[in-house]
Amino acid sequence: MGFGKIGFFIESLLFARRAVRRAQNENSTPPQSSPLTRGGGKTIVYTREELPFFFLPNQSAFYEAHQLRKSFFFRRLILRAKGIVSISQGLKDALVGTGLPEGKILVAHDGYDEKQFAERISKAEARSRLGLPQDKKVAMYIGGLETWKGAQILCEAAKFLIKDNILTVIIGGTDAELEKLQSKYPHVRFLGAKPYRDLPFNQCAADVLVVPNSMETKLGSAFTSPIKLFAHMASGTALVVANTPSITEVVEPTQILKFIPDNPKSLTQAIKKALSSEWLAVWVSKEATEVKKRAQEFTWDKRAKNVLAYITHLCGKEPL
Question: How far apart are CA 24 and CA 228, in angstroms?
Fold first, then answer.
């Protein structure tokens, strides 16, 4: 459907209506056994879209929040949810600030597949796959190039890092984004987007992994739950992260190196420290193990169990 934003809204509204009808049809047929219905009961609707609540009965479905909607219309729709799952504490706090009851919101951060990231390859093999030099220290960012994710701050830091023979590598971004950045930042090795299934191997090529979220927007500083963060924590590779609430609510402050958000010089200093023999000795002897242990609290399996227990509680069923 055309007509720009209006057409997209109408198309989304029609899709939401079809989805609701399907759920209602399932509820009109004999139920299948599931952890929630236990052999009987209605199908439970769980969605991260707001529009289905326009058609659903009040307090009959669950909503997963990934951002704060400023529109009064969307906020009214969310109020119709029986329960809300927020991907970060910062987002929950913002939702409560709009008038939603705190006890109605569960914080369930994003996560990672523990089995998928159990397999590792050597640094030499990972670099060979990516065409990276074996004789340089590598500071790596993996992810999108949206401004709030902060990759441009690492690009700025690359001007200083190259003086210490540290290569800055970025995996991610669209062709259009890369075309603009490659000429502006010649000291950065841009490898383009890679499949998520390659992430466990690609991050093995790094000496330090960087999560440089920006403080310029609430999305980057407080609302997001970076999936790459959990994968990086599980890797055992040294971490440098922006000192933002969305990151520090996940990783213990003493376990990682932080830098001042949106500050290339602060990021440069943190990366250089992460590559120093003094810090690496501490990292290898203690912190890598602690961070990997912390990462195990954020697997998709554990997240699913927490969300199911929350839904079961609000539906008045016995705990799972």
Answer: 36
| Cα radius of gyration (the chain) | 22
Buried b (16+ CB within 10 A) or exposed e, 102-122: eeebbbbbbbbebeebeebee
| Strands of the chain, DSSP E | 45-47, 61-65, 83-86, 105-107, 137-142, 166-171, 188-192, 208-211, 238-242, 257-259
What is the C-alpha end-to-end distance of the chain, expressed in Å?
A: 43
Domains located in the chain, CATH noted: 4-111+300-314 (3.40.50.2000), 123-297 (3.40.50.2000)
Per-residue pLDDT reduced to its tens digit, 70-98: 778 788 888 889 999 999 999 999 999 98
Give 301-311 pLDDT, tens digit per residue: 999 999 999 99
| pLDDT lower than 50: segments of the chain | 1, 35-39, 318-320
